[in-house]
Task: structure prediction
Amino acid sequence: MARSDYLFTSESVSEGHPDKVADQISDAIVDLFLSKDPEARIACETLTTTQLVVLAGEIRCKGVYENGAWAPGALDEIEATVRETVKRIGYAQDGFHWEQFRFENNLHGQSAHIAQGVDEAGNKDEGAGDQGIMFGYATDETPDLMPATLDYSHKILARLAADRHSGAAPFLEPDSKSQVTLRYAGGVPVEATALVVSTQHAPGYFWHGGEGDPDKYKVLRDYVLGVFKDVLPDGFVTENTAIHVNPTGRFEIGGPDGDAGLTGRKIIVDTYGGASPHGGGAFSGKDPTKVDRSAAYITRYLAKNIVAAGLAKRCTIQLSYAIGVAEPLSLYVDLHGTGTVDEAKLEAVIPQLVRLTPKGIREHLGLNKAIYSRTAAYGHFGRKPEGDFFPWEKTDLVEKLKAAV
Result:
């Protein structure tokens, strides 16, 4: 029987975290290539460290990289895209500056042996870009149908970033992390027992071990406390909530200068904050033929629509694929004892409503577009669908699901 009274914790990291810098660069490259060729194949990994950005991976893109050669101007456009991404995040520091870092581009052509299994040919349908398992999840804990601990963690850091960019909090620098612990009673979040923010800051905004400026630190701490109270529901922050603001003390050296960053190291931050299983595959840097990305999006879409339809309070969906094979090998639905319909019924109905091949997923959600840079910070899920962006967050399947079950 599921527990109803417990503590649960999730964390998030900001757009300036070194791993997130890498994710955003990788997805900026995905968007650049898809804007040139909707059928482009991209697997772009990024390394960031002190005054260095390195790209590596496999690509195929009409008008950019064909037959083993770069198109005129393509390399310059890639570098400009990378530098503009770092500039937008806000890095103009001695240890990591958007104009000054050394840049290496080690992207090369996609393996022909992978292409032969993935591409459509004759009577062969397009196959999955890799084997693997993917999970989607939804819960009615928040209006966005996301786990509350992760939802608030994201929103805290998004607020810090917005205030940094606007100048409302000029003492903030790009790198930051948050962590939210909530107490659940009867399976419902009722209060915050612990809140943590560690944020890079301007010189002097710390007080630790008798060093720093206590007045400046108070400005920073009071600001973060205000964000906690604005983001969390009324009454969640109490006198009993343990508050930690920069618990290590000084945090002036941050971002890729403070720690190396790699694409795909924040997969739990990107998904459900540990509230759901994860198949292990990262999203950023991959075009939508890669089911690590597209199948994770369709499972979120299906789980969200099931919860939005009132068929369950919580829903987990798993898909599995083999490389080069179009149809999924398995579909699993778990309503965690909260459902009003039988899981087996949903497993039978879902493939009738959405074709779960890689091509079917892309066509249903419209994924062959330059829509991925926005996903690379503050979570791929729980976002507001807007135009072509975040189509997996739409609830346009609700009525069809109700009618089918």
